[in-house]
Amino acid sequence: MKMCMPPIGTMESLTGFVLAGIQHSSGGPIGRFPGVEDAPHSDGVVVASHGGTSRFRPQRHSPTVGANCRCLFDDTVLECLRSSLATTLSSFAPLAGKLVHLKDTGDVGSSCSATDGVRFVVAESDADIRRLSGDEEYDISVLRLLVPEVDMSELPVRVLAVQVTRLDGGMGMALGVTVHHAVADGRSLWAFVEAWATACRGDTPAAATPTFDRSLVKLPRGDELAREVLRKFAPNLPLATLPMPTTGETIRPFTRVRAFTLEKQDIELLKKRIIHLSESNGVYLLSHPLSTFAAIAGLAWTCFVRCKQFSGDDDVLFFFFADARRRLDPPVDEAYTGSCLTGCLARLPARELQADHALVAAASAVQDEVCKMAKDPVAGLDFVTPLLTIDMDRLMHVSGSPGFKAYEVADFGWGRPRWTENARMNDDGHVVLMRAN
Predict the structure, then answer these.
(1) Which residues does 308 contact at the CB level (< 8 Å), separation at least 6?
(2) Facing residues of 125 across strands?
(3) What is the pLDDT at residue 279?
(4) What is the pLDDT of residue 402?
(5) Nearest CA to 120 among 175, 171, 63, 57?
(6) Of the four, 69, 180, 254, 257, which is 20 to 30 A from 329 by CA?
(7) What is the H or E stretch that residue 270 is in?
């Protein structure tokens, strides 16, 4: 199957998520962080199964406390993960394929056949799970080793890869998933994870059948617009690298990562705080009811500015993706499982983000961009061009969504994951949002 790739999605966008099911020993020292090693004979390819059912019905594992627990990571669990993955791929066939360059037209297509499959890696590490799963700074270099590497610099390139890592002598397991965003955005990724987890548990799958039919995404000027934006994303195909910023600034590598959890009551207090600041300062910037996303984004944006040394006249930018499915005319069918994103870019002078009403200004600017996107979702498709002309040090980028129920959908039969992280955050100033456990 081959199809023209529309621009809603990126050519150099790879996401790696780590899902971990945990068993703890009772005490003991905090371990060190060595590299992850592939177990002997651990690398294989899972081919889509069209038989309809998994050969193994797993036993549901409950998290256990004890010094000698090893049941979470054994051959039965591995085989169940493999076989249920094969079953799931029969409904998510493009994820088992490759992105290819179609020389005749210059397009990029998704190519999948009965012989295609997903790389499935089994690895081991004695990294201590407690040092990776808390709301504290953790070793990002080790976290990255828990997701499979996929070279996406030149087409053809695999769309999906999976890695299962035994942690801390079997006291925990990490399931790493790497997916290319040109084929699946965040919503589609979690739909796939949910379907895989359902198959692994042996439960009845959802009635809705996913479809990757991109003809469901109706764009003005159709393929012409797709090709136009594709040339800006990847002007040197089959090389799939993005063009460099004209400012000479490169993407800044980050050095530290930390997770922060906002409980429901924290979010409600944050919203009330923003509304109170608006009223008490006489700054009525909120033209719409305050959304959870705008409130959290506003908080993150103002924190970003506090960490930097900007002059008051410096423009500080806030970029985020938005799901365009319901915003397009006509709306995209709910069964569509692919990539359907558009870009939003808010901009404020630093003085506004440093003032007493900074939270109000930030949340309002974000919410205004969401409203603009709702009115004209196509306007943000070419988000690459404006990003190439700005100082990267003044850019903050948010991905993910509070609507992604990662902990709820990723129960593979031994309970919800203890933690879920994006292991491939792109640069300094990048924040990932996800619904907490």
Answers:
(1) 316, 393, 394
(2) 167
(3) 82
(4) 82
(5) 175
(6) 180
(7) helix 264-280
Q: Same domain for 161 and 284?
A: no
The full length of the chain comes to: 437
Phi, then psi, of 381 in degrees rounded to 5: -65, -40
- Domain CATH for 362: 3.30.559.10
- Residue range of the domain that includes 270: 264-404+416-434
The percent of residues above 90 in pLDDT, for the chain, comes to 28
Q: What distance in Å separates the CA atoms of residue 386 and residue 20, rounded to the nearest whole number?
A: 37
CA–CA gap between residue 174 and residue 21 (Å, rounded): 7
Strand bridging mode 315-323 / 341-349? antiparallel
Backbone dihedral region for residue 374 (phi beyond 0: left; psi -120 to 50: alpha; all else: beta): alpha
The predicted model gives 372-385 an average pLDDT of 82
35, 141 contact by CB (below 8 A): no
Give the per-residue pLDDT at 322. Answer: 92
Residues 297 and 172 in one domain: no
Q: What is the CA radius of gyration of the chain?
A: 22
82 within a domain of the structure (yes/no): yes
3-state secondary structure of 8: coil
pLDDT digits (tens, 9 = 90+) for 214-223: 888 887 776 7
Task: Identify the DSSP state of 65.
Answer: B
Per-residue pLDDT reduced to its tens digit, 157-206: 899 999 999 887 666 788 999 998 888 899 999 999 999 999 999 998 87
Angle at 143 between CA 137 and CA 145, to 5 degrees: 155
Our count of domains for the chain comes to 2
pLDDT interval class at 127 (50, 70, 90): confident
Torsion of CA 149, 154, 159, 163, to 10 degrees: -10
* CA–CA dist 204, 201 (Å, integer): 9
> Which residue's entry shows tokens 């850019």?
395
Using DSSP's 3-state secondary structure scheme, residue 343 falls into strand
Reported pTM: 0.81
Q: Which residues contact 267 (CB under 8 A, 6 or more apart)?
A: 292, 295, 296
* Model pLDDT, residue 401: 86
266: Cβ contacts below 8 Å, ≥ 6 apart: none
Q: 42: alpha, beta or left, given left = phi > 0 and alpha = psi -120 to 50?
A: alpha
Which residues have C-beta within 8 Å of that of residue 335, sequence separation ≥ 6? 208, 209, 210, 211
Same-domain check for residues 320 and 221: no
Q: Residue 416 and residue 229: Cα distance in Å, rounded?
A: 39
